[in-house]
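Hello again,

I reread your note about wanting to compare the complex against the isolated chains. To keep things tidy I'm splitting this into two emails, and this first one only covers the full assembly. Below are the input lines as submitted, including protein chains and any nucleic acid or small-molecule components. They are followed by the predicted structure of everything together. The single-chain runs will come separately.
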Amino acid sequence: MEAKDFDRWVDQSLLAFEATLDDLVPAGAPAGLGEAMRYASLGGGKRLRPLLVLASCAAVNGDRFAAMRAACAVELIHAYSLVHDDMPCMDNDVLRRGKPTTHVAFGEAQAMLAGDAMQALAFEVLTPDSGIAPALQARLCALLARSAGHDGMAGGQAIDLASIGRQLDECTLRDMHRRKTGVLLQASVVMGAACGDVSAGAAQSLSAYGAALGLAFQVVDDILDVTQDSVVLGKTAGKDQDANKPTYVSVLGLEPAKGLAQQLRAEAKAALVASGLADVSHLSLLADSVVERVN
Amino acid sequence: MEAKDFDRWVDQSLLAFEATLDDLVPAGAPAGLGEAMRYASLGGGKRLRPLLVLASCAAVNGDRFAAMRAACAVELIHAYSLVHDDMPCMDNDVLRRGKPTTHVAFGEAQAMLAGDAMQALAFEVLTPDSGIAPALQARLCALLARSAGHDGMAGGQAIDLASIGRQLDECTLRDMHRRKTGVLLQASVVMGAACGDVSAGAAQSLSAYGAALGLAFQVVDDILDVTQDSVVLGKTAGKDQDANKPTYVSVLGLEPAKGLAQQLRAEAKAALVASGLADVSHLSLLADSVVERVN
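Full-complex prediction:
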């Protein structure tokens, strides 16, 4: 596949995704809550997780309606986690996606509620009255709940919280990031694959692809945190360093961290080959975009 | 049914419920997260929502395993909402169920994460690998997500937040409480009923029972807030008054509020009769306990 075909697929996918998410996040939620939810979820972000869901679904020729709902659900979980993570009691950050963070724009209480409501909405969009088979609804809810909760994202954030000012070894750092970022990226791939019929072996390969890509994403994040400025990132640069948080760069050094990112990309691509699926080109190019991104 | 049979049913149900919840809330979640989740969810509270789920399931002779999971899920949503609601940016409360609130005991960041993880866990316990039919899993997730989110509990809290220091009419106050407290209590009844086979008419009657009971609960809460002290309540008494929040007592006056509670109990019981179900005695006595409670 040529790069411009991939770019076109990304553009078309994002157009459909943004329209669907815009439809699903309620403008009419009471007392400004809808406004805060929409501020936090619409019109920003790289939308990597939705693209992974949609590309994975395409690789298994799955149910596109279900995958689009899954893409919205995963992004809502990601977006809510950013809202809560930015709050004063956590990272106390004021800039996100080039805009004031949600609590700066709407106040802390509304930001917390908006995050809470976005998590509930994620499960709401996975369980429509019609359009997705009930068994698939249940499967998607199961995958999302496990990746968002204590054993996934929230658990990773708790480790992150406890690790400030401490030196971690690479193994502990890897576990933290696997939970904090990796599990939800991996779940995006697995949820997309769940929207189709796929052999257990192929599903396992896609899951391995997701795991490698998820880790690569975090390694690159840590690299960009020290090599880019805030304007390019759209969020505060150098904040991990300032907060004395352990990162791949602080644990491994900059060049070895870059080497690890390349190695993880190779692992991700090897898993795609191992899946035996014919059309994995979007997933392969998404791995490239994760490792080569500049923000 | 005699009162002592009901008491025995409550005791046995709560014993089984506490054991199940204890099993499901992970002690091993990383970096103190599990400890905070368990602190916030185990060993306290009236457990009204779980009892409603179990009584409703019994009324329709439903699947008891599914109902017990639903009972845990609903209570996890309720408990997480208390954790977030007590935080400094919301009600800033230090006492809950006779203990220091979760953020006082574990810090604000861990409390926020614990609440977030408890919401995810609610959907996790509804979607086990086996033991609940997938279609029922999906139905329970759908009901829970809608009652917890923008159109339910979180939406009600946003209205509550916006209403501080303002005078509301009874209609707006009723809408706020319907969302904030009523919808989740009603969902408890509806989720219990979903665990069995029940006619559309009976399901609708049970839902009406849940709506009346949910509102009665809040009216009584407002009455107790001005008539009881903190020791009896296990939480800070008079706090709504202090916060200048509109309540049924401030809007209607104390005696009319007591009259409304009685009227809602009668409505709830009339709905049980209308359901045509044979064994609604537990639900009927739960309505009594809601209106006659002293804390």
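For quick reference: Chain A has a mean pLDDT of 93.

B.
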